[in-house]
Amino acid sequence: MIRILATLVLACLAPLAALSQGLPLRFGLFPNLSAPVLLDAHQPLADHLSHALKRPVYLETAPDFASFVTRTRQGRYDLLLTAPHLAYLAVTESGYVPLYAYAKPVQGMLVVRAQASFQTMADLKGKTIAMADPLAIVVMMMEAELGRAGLLEGRDFARLEAGSHNNAALLVVEGKAQGAVLGALPFQRLPAEVKQNLRPLAYTRPALSQVYLANAKLSAVEVKELKMALGRFGETAAGREFFRRGGMGGLVPVSSVALQALDPYAREATRRLGSLSEP
Fold first, then answer.
1. What is the pLDDT of residues 85-105, one digit of tens each?
2. Same domain, 46 and 182
């Protein structure tokens, strides 16, 4: 009888062991930077997770923010790194499990050319401002700051859609826009030759940073193992270099409750997604 019970227990555990050690994990990266930059920056993390979990970890991103949200809703990613307001959508719409957020808050920046004479946001009246993707939380926050400064899109400045944070910065460097809105963390990852030609003009208030989430289809054991592996990344040499280069300040636990503060931005993102899908 004891042998029979032991055999049954092992039979029940075998599929779980095969799942956790065999099948690959698809790791989705929020496309706030170009795909080559994103994939190169996060490869050390993927390697760490693959070694810790004993299963392949494949990095993936999307061509734009809207496509990334669509793929998130479809459950395409097993592990997900996304913006905080879109993390809230992933939790409430698709049941993703929040794991960690970066310790350093996300913050929006308005940058101009280093040699430009602009001193305040009001100096950009009548100018062109390049914007990262309209679904970016830093764009939403800076839009509010521009409004408080008395600058309204279409009336006081022209908006140039850049599609990504680094594209917004490059449009200023190339002289195609006089200002650019992007995130402080993506700004840190810009090449030195680009950053040295830019100067911050204004910042938004800080908000919760990017969030790591696990797909609800993963078992409780898998989610626990994944969270433990993520949490230990900062203890490795590769992890310390990753957080140093990105300026993220490490990882802090995050809960669904903490994400509720992002509800207004999540609602606005949903509205904008709806308008993007309209013919």
1. 999 999 999 999 999 999 999
2. no
